[in-house]
Amino acid sequence: MTSAAATAAAAAAKQAATGSLIGLALGDALGFPTEFNDVPSILAKCGPWRQMELPNKAFVSDDTQMTLALGRGLRTAMERGPLGPRRMERLVREEFVDWYHSPENNRAPGRTCMVACRLLDSDLPWQKASQIGSKGCGANMRVAPVGLVPGLSEGERAGAAQLQAALTHGHPTGLAASDLTARAVYLLAQGVEPTGLVGQLRSYALESRSVYQERWLGDLWAHSQDPTPKHFIERGWDECLGVLERLEGALRDPSLSPETDPCLVTGDGWVAEEALATALLCFLMFPEEPVTALRRAACTKGDSDSIACLAGAFAGAYAGVGAWPGEWVERVEYRGELVGLGERWDGVRIGL
After folding, report:
1. Average pLDDT over residues 126-145
2. Which terminus of the chain has a smaller tally of CB atoms within 10 A, N or C?
3. How far apart are CA 36 and CA 138, in angstroms?
4. Of residues 52, 53, 65, the one with CA closest to residue 25
């Protein structure tokens, strides 16, 4: 067995895809009731953050709903052949429009997603529907499936991550943050140690900094004010490199306390690069304690459901499905569909 095959087998053995998707939904359900609250209000409502419990009715937000929409689109696209931009765009666009019209789309969806999906429900080229000025975390809170789908090349993974972001959020920082988020999920699923993760992400960002994914993005850059595609995409990677530098500095700081709201260190998470960095901080403070990482992410003053859903995706990709309490898994909303996608991509049936 080659080293690549052995790595893939190890990811399947721990059910990394299922663990990541379940972790994302659990984080979403834990953070959904605390979104828009400051930390004192959360503590007053939920008690000590290390003891936060999943609500009895573990409803998720639009974060999990759109993750599933992307997952369905990717699954169908790859059933019909190698993943490419035209097929992926058409099928994921259909899923996003279906979500837009769904009666279950009542979980405080983001304005950018709603405006873009309304425009996607037309004959417009998708680049004209994309909200070119928005780098909200809706770009990357749903991207985990791109890091979990087996069989993609590095270029396909990068292109798919950026395209799914660009369908709604066209800002270059949203594209770069989505690419990095999918990369982090992929690396953790493959067994990369958390201690080396941020360094690997910084190296990847530096290598990708001047690469505009024209095959996947078409003329998206021309809808901005940038003079060239290179200038356009470099803006996004530079913002992501800046927040990764802040994250590295925080992790090296011996005074960093788990009791400090992570949003005070790496940002509130309303924008894509901060959602990535703050979720990574929550995970990397507790890499061997996935439930604690979720609780820390949910008890934050920022976009707590998106921060916690990304922290859950990272923790579940690293630790596998066994990371999560069985009684939590049983009652999280959309459990059956999450497990179905995860089992498919893990190549195993685990019967949760």
Report:
1. 98
2. N
3. 16
4. 65
Contact residues for 285 (Cβ-Cβ < 8 A; gap 6+): 256, 258, 262, 293, 296
- Integer Cα distance of 149 and 71 in angstroms: 9
pTM of the full structure: 0.96
Compute the distance between CA of residue 63 and CA of residue 92 in angstroms, rounded to an integer: 15
- Find the mean pLDDT for residues 130-146: 98
Other beta carbons within 10 Å of 55: 14
pLDDT digits over 291-343, tens only?
999 999 999 999 999 999 999 999 999 999 999 999 999 999 999 999 999 99
**Quick check: 311 and 304 in contact, CB under 8 A?**
no
Q: How many residues does the chain have?
A: 352
Which pLDDT belongs to residue 350? 47
User: Identity (one letter) of the amino acid at 4?
Assistant: A
Q: How far apart are CA 259 and CA 144, in angstroms?
A: 27
Query: Dmax of the chain from CA atoms?
Result: 54
End-to-end CA distance of the chain: 29
Distance set, CA 5 to CA 12, 156, 208 (Å): 11, 19, 25
Q: Cα(14)–Cα(26) distance, rounded to whole angstroms?
A: 18
Alpha carbon distance 194, 87 (integer Å): 34
The pair of structure tokens assigned to 202 is 């910084």
Which tens digits make up the pLDDT trace of 171-220?
A: 999 999 999 999 999 999 999 999 999 999 999 999 999 999 999 999 99
CATH topology of domain 3-346: ADP-ribosylglycohydrolase fold (1.10.4080)
Among all chains, which residue has been given the structure tokens 């990068």?
158
CA–CA separation, 97 vs 121, rounded Å?
Answer: 6
Query: Could you read off the pLDDT of 70-99 as tens digits, one per residue?
Result: 999 999 999 999 999 999 999 999 999 999
For 300, phi then psi, to 5°, come to: -140, 155
> Cα separations (Å) of 204 from 25, 167, 208, 244, 273?
27, 23, 6, 11, 15
Residue with tokens 């680049």: 127
> Residue 11 pLDDT > 70, yes or no?
no
